[in-house]
Write a structure and sequence with these properties.
Blueprint lengths: L1 E5 L6 E5 L1 E4 L2 E4 L4 H6 L8 E7 L5 E7 L7 E7 L1 E8 L10 E7 L5 E4 L3 E7 L4 E7 L8 E3 L22 H4 L12
Antiparallel strand pairs: 1-2, 2-10, 3-4, 5-12, 6-11, 6-13, 7-10, 7-12, 8-9, 8-11
Length: 184
């Protein structure tokens, strides 16, 4: 059974699977299409991705794909912890440019569902953090986009000093939201 709760931006959910433990360890059903559908979330995930970030302060994002390859993402941490961020980049949305952050960790055993129309990113809060996430659409390089993590028009508090952040060249050179191709 999954515990599902919508967060302050419509369509973004925190999902916490039950975990059953004993002296051997634990068992958890981390994904259940019927449980999500009963909570009004009816998505077909077609791909799983897995990342390892060796140090604290590794920032991945803010990423998204444009239609017709826009992706819903179901993100969980199997080792370590992240601050996960979702930014509404739908120009016509009443919450355009608003963001939320949620700590996701192996200890909390929680997940976040980030829907299409949102940019997504995370920063690691623990060394050797492993993130696993499901997506509803395949990776499409021609539709892949990024926004700068430190865009002042968004104003995300990443809870890690900028000097301690490690990024890819792609993310470091991402455009500001005002210059990015986004959802209408």
């Amino acid at each position: 059974m999954l515990e599902v709760g919508e967060l302050e931006l419509a369509g973004v959910y925190e999902i916490t699977p039950r975990r059953f433990g004993d002296n051997r360890g634990f068992f958890s059903e981390t994904y259940s299409a019927p449980d999500l559908a009963s909570a009004g979330i009816d998505l077909v995930f077609i791909q799983d991705n897995h990342s390892l970030s060796r140090s604290v302060g590794v920032l991945r994002g803010l990423h998204y794909q444009l239609p017709p390859f826009a992706q819903d993402k179901l993100v969980r941490v199997v080792r370590g912890a992240i601050l996960d961020v979702a930014v509404d980049i739908r120009r016509s949305s009443p919450t355009f440019r608003r963001w939320l952050a949620l700590e996701i960790s192996a200890e909390k055993w929680n997940q976040i569902l980030v829907p299409k129309g949102f940019a997504h990113g995370f920063v690691t809060l623990a060394p050797d953090t492993e993130v696993v996430y499901k997506v509803t659409e395949r990776y499409a390089p021609g539709h892949d986009r990024s926004i700068r993590f430190d865009d002042p028009a968004i104003g995300i508090d990443w809870q890690v000093p900028t000097a301690e952040i490690t990024q890819s060249d792609k993310d470091r050179n991402a455009p500001l939201l005002a210059d990015a191709q986004i959802f209408e």
